[in-house]
Amino acid sequence: PPVGKSEDLDMSLCHLRSMSPIHRQYLSNMDVKASMVTSLLCGNSLWGLLTCHHSTEKTTHFEERILAELLSEIIATRVSALESLAQARAEVGVQQLERSLIETISVNGDWTSSLIDKAGQLLRPLDAIGAVLCHDSDTIAIGVTPDNEDIENLIQWLDEQNIRSAFYSRAIGKAYPQFEELAKKTPGVLAYPVSSLPGEYLIWFRPEHVRTICW
Prior knowledge:
Strand order of the largest sheet: 4-3-7-6-5
Structural class: alpha+beta
Oligomer: single chain
Helix content: 40-55%
Largest sheet: 5 strands, antiparallel
Number of strands: 7
Order of helices and strands: HEEHHHEEHEHHEE
Radius of gyration: 25 Å
């Protein structure tokens, strides 16, 4: 049946389609005359794109497009396998920490010291370089952490935000300029309340990872 004016045309299975004027201008800025794109689907979600450019006008035959799709499927399968492996390793690390906590608590009954004694297992699942446990008016730091003043300001801000579940930021200095000094050492922050009382959190810190993207 003909497509009505109010209906969108599903082009999911189309091999060839015209480009938007904005994308054409984008390609023109790079002096690109031809473009072919295939999707990298991981877990039914779009993970990325495999993009091919050519400096002159070029016709891509059906067999070549099929090969490009096959290559995309192979890459997506590999990416999914690597992500699953990383997830499995993280889950194993958490399970090991959980077992260690249970064993230590059963011996001395102090869960806070259990976390500190297992510093490596506490940091490794999140690839963190430091952590802070704020509990019962006491602050215990592990590894590389911000200055005490920066930690106190962060805890006060978390209380003001009424954080009840996990708070995280990949670049806390950019998202919240008041933490610019804290971000100079550890821009990645993950905080989770350990009780319903104010000021009681377990906070992980991660270092900066610089990425250079060339266009």
